[in-house]
């Protein structure tokens, strides 16, 4: 085939070795002692050899408490999913600077769970099976694989289907975590062509697929997937079984001791820690084959995908071949370029790849948002391997006959500096030999995979310098032009890049962008250890942690609107997720007053690694709720009360269990956003009786998204939850408790009341309903109740029948007033909002009356002002 020889080959240069010297013995060694055998014989073609590599020797502290405590790793890798499982990419520049081949310590890792532990002495006897629709099922050891088959060595780029997903997540959160543009790496893989093994097992005529299964046991079974049998048998597809990477035995994260390598396809098909090859008539039915690595149609929302299995089971949406993609690596993110002096040119550089073995045939650069393009130079280091025929790391390099391109290539373009200074951005796009060109527009999909729109780096001129910015930074790392645009309310939709297509002006100046609320004392530099924090896991002096900062909640115990218990339940814990999910900006702005220091590094690690208290007790508990531990209740039934209101029934742990919620108190509900997996936490009061056993009912008004807004996150997520799935609950919380017969506790202080004024709106009726019901059910309870229930439409009134049934025989102590702002013509009740005047007209104000208020924030605020103006004291008002 024709090979491309570019003079601009500046990237791989540093990896081009002098002429390789000696050959390896025909049988490769079983341990890592061939590391230094970057040796070859046969001809004098210079191929790119691995960069210098140093295998990490010690396990990082952060991994010590995880199931991967046996895996030494490189600290430079950026963790994308917290501490564990290990999903990482290298910093983009570090990856690119290594050149054509990546050292194993910087090679990206995608692990769905814990890394199987395989000791060196176990490697020779590692077994895998070939089974299913074969006439000769076999079990093969790694020693047999090495001795009884021809060994080959071949450079291959693996790419995770999630590469560049952070860009999708910036536009709309997908179900996947945020890869930057370094979710790919290249290595020389040594092993055996997979078809040779399968041929010996003799597939039957019905055989169509090769399913692969790893040794990593995950929540939904062992990791597994499949590819077509005829691809495996096609020499041009290059599918292999590999045990060496860059001449070393595979490291634990990359499948030690054996993995499949499926070139040209997404990394997800290259099963690590390989245990089984199962030949089948149908594609794999492994959970990870079905629910991962798919591009569902763009209109399938996270909720739709959760509710409707059919999207996942449609093989048309499974991803195999990679799509065409490219990235700019130089200029780097935040690189600054001096406009003065020489040289006049700036050399832009980056990578490109395509799928299915297709060659990248052009890479184009635009400095004017795609109106004009210029051709970049392309260097295919892989081609050098086609020109040679030699032994390398115990395997034969023999690619001269094969035209497929399985590796990334590098592009470069020299651009005059003054042209960069006059441009707003640099775009790159690549095209492959089938004329598959990267699109301008993003194809958003639920899993956020295969993201490949034009890659854009922005340019801003600052005096004599220009500064470049990449679209994003991986994981939760801040930075990138997409984040800026988003904060400024700019348009990230296709074709806009946050700006008007024709216009040049930036959307909103940086200084006008939304300011984050600071929750710390600016000058406080106190470091707090984990022992100090744990000493304050007390009711009297509760300390808690939000985003690594420590707060002392003691002074706020009495005032906290959720009651002292809300703070006590967080004592000694990292409550970042909960705090951020439920607190308003006003609450956050109060936090510096309670800030007492920052957790030290060891304490942060310890807190990250400490899991939530597991339920270890064998004895079934009488009550479900616990203040510090989230319990799981399964959605058992859903009754549609009106177009937007539901009663959800949740099943508790066992049929005799009670919820354990005192009258007047609430519980916290936690659900994961179906799209982002972020925690959504809200407090609710159930409808069901306090002493009901086995089940609990919750009345919920669903705030649907519409032209007016995004709707309620929690209520929509609850509504989207399929029957049989769980929500999490903990509690009780709340300042107020009704003990019966006029006796209450307010912040644990007893108080006697003769009457209640109960003001509510919408689903704010639920806590009021609990107290009202308790009073109406007890013939000895003479406490008077006047309910003011404000709603918009007649159909918005909740629990109307239940309230009426309870008050029917209790007229001497119950008054219920409904008022509507959009009442129908035949409505004979009150009209308008609940006002201070309405309360004054219907209730007498005295010291033994307590006002309970629960409704939308605006209503609570206006009632607060009106009641104070009418002479009520704050200690007579109780806001839920
Ligand atoms: N094989 C097993 N057994 N378990 C896994 O979690 N992850 C897959 C694939 N093979 C995975 C696996 C995915 S999604 C990718 S992208 C590649 O491994 C990553 O390979 P690497 O970690 O060696 O880079």
Keywords for this structure?
880 residues; 6-stranded antiparallel beta sheet; binds ligand MTE; 21 helices; elongated; Sulfite Oxidase, Chain A, domain 2; iron; Flavocytochrome B2, Chain A, domain 1; 28% strand; disordered N terminus; alpha+beta; Elongation Factor Tu (Ef-tu), domain 3; molybdopterin cofactor binding
How would you describe what is shown here?
The chain is elongated. Among the domains are: 115-317, Alpha-Beta Complex (Sulfite Oxidase, Chain A, domain 2), CATH 3.90.420; 527-611, Cytochrome b5-like heme/steroid binding domain (Flavocytochrome B2, Chain A, domain 1); 631-733, Translation factors (Elongation Factor Tu (Ef-tu), domain 3, Beta Barrel); 739-879, Nucleotide-binding domain of ferredoxin-NADP reductase (FNR) module (Rossmann fold, 3-Layer(aba) Sandwich), CATH 3.40.50. The chain has a 6-stranded antiparallel beta sheet with strand order 15-25-24-23-17-18, with no helix packed on it. 16% of the residues lie in helices and 28% in strands. The chain is built from 21 helices and 44 strands. A hairpin with a 6-residue loop joins strand 32 and strand 33. It has 880 residues and is an alpha+beta fold. Residues 107-112, 158, 160, 214, 216, 223, 253-254, 267-268, 270-273 line the site of ligand MTE. Residues 30-39 have a biased composition (Low complexity). Homodimer. Residues 628-739 form the FAD-binding FR-type domain. One of its GO terms (biological process) is nitric oxide biosynthetic process.
